[in-house]
Write a structure and sequence with these properties.
By secondary structure, this protein is of the alpha/beta class. The protein is built from nine helices and twelve strands. The chain has one domain: Rossmann fold. Helix 2 packs across helix 3.
Length: 335
């Protein structure tokens, strides 16, 4: 994968108002000619592995993603979490853009940015995705050898179980398109819709389950999230399918899949997620949970604690080398 190294900019660490101990550094980097913004959470002890995280369909960092980042940080893992292009604090037009290709390029540029962080030029890297971004993170893990582990939760991998393929030609076509293709359709063909709506007759929305309406209105409407209740679809016609069944056999890194036993979200079939997990080439851990598509994004809750702890355990186990583990244990003994 041909990726560009870009130099991010930093600000001094700051704490979110009303949430003591949530220190992070604001970071900017460039992707697809736009400035993307995120937060770098650093553990107390370095060196450390790093997780690159981005949210799912239209959501932003303060919509519980920051809570996952804090959990991982407290377990000795650095976290770089960012808003996708056109969402939240990140620049880019159109606003609310939904496009697998654009988000994949964002992940790749975010990974490149981490390599410029002081002390992280050779750190182990994981990618993490939720819902819509799980498919993107899966593709990035298949395409980019810098990725050393993968976590996907409530993945939106489609509604149809397909056969995997051992033909690398399909992956090569995807790689070539991501490197050099026109990632979005002509502007005249873009379509837009509310993310959620209380009236599907007069104002049909992109997401229709009641659970989606409740979660986005509850968490997106909070002060400072930067979330807007509108998305714009820009996926290019004629592009190769961003296919999880092409990616899965080529994901050879340790992977954790969090699947809702009964995911109610269209496009997020639990059976499809299980089938994709079965075809992953690397060591795979599958955790099935109750709570539907959004239950693990309810904070605070027992389910959030269960899932975030399981993910932190997995990331610590597969990413942290023995030398770092020994350093951390020594630091704990000294305190």
């Amino acid at each position: 994968m041909d990726v560009e190294n870009r130099t991010p900019s930093y600000s001094k660490p700051e704490s979110r108002s009303g949430v003591p101990g949530s220190e992070y550094r604001d970071v900017e980097f460039t992707s697809d000619d736009a400035v993307l913004r995120g937060r770098l959470y650093l553990p107390h002890t370095l060196p450390a592995p790093i997780v690159v995280m981005a949210h799912g369909f239209s959501a932003t960092v303060p919509m519980v993603l920051d809570r996952f980042a804090e959990c991982f940080r407290d377990r000795g893992i650095a976290v770089f979490v960012f808003d996708h292009r056109g969402h939240g604090d990140s620049d880019g037009e159109p606003r609310g853009e939904i496009n697998h290709w654009v988000q994949a390029r964002g992940y790749l540029d975010a990974i490149s940015a981490t390599r410029t962080f002081e002390g992280f030029d050779t750190a182990p890297i994981a990618v993490w995705g939720d819902s819509f971004s799980s498919r993107v993170a899966l593709g990035v893990a298949a395409l980019d050898d810098r990725v050393g582990a993968l976590v996907i939760q409530s993945p939106a991998l489609g509604d149809r179980v397909a056969s995997d393929t051992t033909d690398d030609a399909q992956l090569d076509v995807i790689r070539e398109f991501l490197d050099a293709g026109a990632l979005r359709a002509p502007e005249a063909t873009w379509t837009s819709a509310p993310v959620v709506s209380a009236d599907q007759t007069s104002s049909p929305s992109a997401l229709t389950p009641l659970t989606a309406f409740r979660w986005f209105i509850e968490y997106g409407a909070r002060y400072g999230t930067g979330w807007t209740n509108r998305v714009t679809y820009t996926m290019p016609k004629g592009a190769p399918r961003f296919d999880p069944f092409v990616f899965a056999p080529r994901v050879r890194v340790p992977t954790q899949v969090i699947v809702a036993r009964h995911d109610e979200m269209p496009g997020a079939s639990s059976d499809v997620t299980r089938a994709v997990a079965d075809h992953l080439a690397g060591t795979t851990e599958v955790l099935e949970v109750d709570g539907g598509h959004f239950g693990l994004l309810e904070y605070p809750s027992a389910l959030f604690t269960q899932v975030s702890t399981a993910e932190a355990d997995f990331l610590t186990r597969v990413l942290r080398p023995a030398s770092v583990t020994a350093t951390l244990r020594s630091a704990v003994r000294q305190t």
